[in-house]
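dumping this here before i forget
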Amino acid sequence: MFDTMTLTKAFSGFCAAFLVFLLGGFAAEKIYGEGHHSDDHHAAYVIEIEDDGAEEVVAEGPPFEELLAMADVDAGGTLFQRNCASCHKIADGENGAGPHLYNIVGRDVASVDGFSYSGNLIAVVDVWTAEELNAFIENPSGYAPRTAMGYGGMRDVEDRANLIAWLEGAGG
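structure:
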């Protein structure tokens, strides 16, 4: 069995080793770490890059109107079933956790009788156009902060166009 002296030696050895590693790490950070030079010291060399004034051009896809015109309505129906049907109904007057989406395109925001809206949508837009629906479906909480809609958003613009085209047909 271990006596008190042996345990004290083992514990002291552990503490000494830990102290050596701690001080070694501190010294290495001081020697090799970033920001150890004062302001009057400069880097050994600097590579100058000329700014030609050209801004980076981000390639955007076709306008949303074109995507909507070319949308696959059947794919939109599948997207509705997969992403929306658990909370929204299509039939006029049938609300779920969310309001019904019958005639949603062109409808006034927060206009479904009998549904209690969070109020944040009204501050953002007055009428649900295809473009406004596109922006909302892409990122609901970014479009209308503190909205009660818990959906994370649909990132693919073609999927959004397909869904909105289907909603136009299903409610029209």
